[in-house]
Amino acid sequence: MKKQFKAVWMGLLVAGLAVAAFGQEAPAPAALEFEPLPYAFDALEPYIDARTMEIHYSRHHQAYFNNVVKAVAGTDMEGQPLEDLFARMSQLPAAVRNNGGGHWNHTLFWKVMSPDGGGIPEGELGAAVDAAFGSYDDFKAQFGAAAATRFGSGWAWLCVADDGSLFITSTPNQDNPLMDVAEKRGTPILGLDVWEHAYYLKYQNLRGSYVEAFWNVVNWPEVAARFAAALQ
Ligand code: MN3
């Protein structure tokens, strides 16, 4: 008798675990996440100062995150990857465009910088940069021009096109090249925030000096990994 009870309970336990495991395989809504900064606020000194990093991450990025969470809450957009929303951006509310873009763009921005950054792109990415722009120096000049000529607030981007080639573009405000509203669409693998909040404390009106400093902290291995992923 005892053995039979034990077998029944074991059976229920196994069934329960199976249900739990099956439940985990069902697509769970992707919760938006405010990830920790991958380094300390002062880690990118002297190129990007600690005070700017602290305000930029803790206030600006946090606000975009909070506001996009609010904007999608209780709608059919809740739980959808931002990339999917960007693909039909023109049909969605401005609050999702501005804050969803703000959250996604800054999440990429922190990761493509590193205290161990600088140097030049190597391997396949290095070859692709040379193929698209002539040389790394030509690439830097063209990217710098895109950053400098973006009037007002926005972003400069290095992107992968559908055919796997690289191109440079810029977007206004918190738009990005994944959005259907973008002039030129592609997969961003490097982004530079050229809003004044990103550089004004240290560089004031000298956006060009900020762009020059940026090259010292670019995390090329991260950019290369994103390039490889975009080619998949
Ligand atoms: Mn910013």
Describe this structure in words.
This protein has 232 residues and is mainly alpha-helical. It has nine helices and three strands, in the order H-H-H-H-H-H-E-E-E-H-H-H. The protein has helices at residues 2-25, 50-72, 82-87, 94-111, 123-133, 136-149, 200-203, 207-214, 220-231, and strands at 154-160, 166-172, 187-193. Strands 2-1-3 form a three-stranded antiparallel beta sheet. A hairpin with a 5-residue loop joins strand 1 and strand 2. Helix 5 crosses helix 6 (136-149). Mean pLDDT is 91; it is low at 12-21. The structure holds manganese (III) ion.
Question: In brief, what are we looking at here?
Answer:
With 232 residues, this protein is mainly alpha-helical. The protein is built from 9 helices and 3 strands, in the order H-H-H-H-H-H-E-E-E-H-H-H. It has helices spanning 2-25, 50-72, 82-87, 94-111, 123-133, 136-149, 200-203, 207-214, 220-231, and strands at 154-160, 166-172, 187-193.
The string of secondary-structure elements, in order, is HHHHHHEEEHHH
Helix content: 40-55%
What's the overall average pLDDT, rounded?
91
What's the end-to-end separation, in Å? 58 Å
Strand order of the largest sheet: 2-1-3
What is the overall shape?
globular
How does the SSE layout of this entry go?
Layout: H1 2-25, H2 50-72, H3 82-87, H4 94-111, H5 123-133, H6 136-149, E1 154-160, E2 166-172, E3 187-193, H7 200-203, H8 207-214, H9 220-231
Antiparallel strand pairs: 1-2, 1-3
Helix pairs in contact: 2-4, 5-6
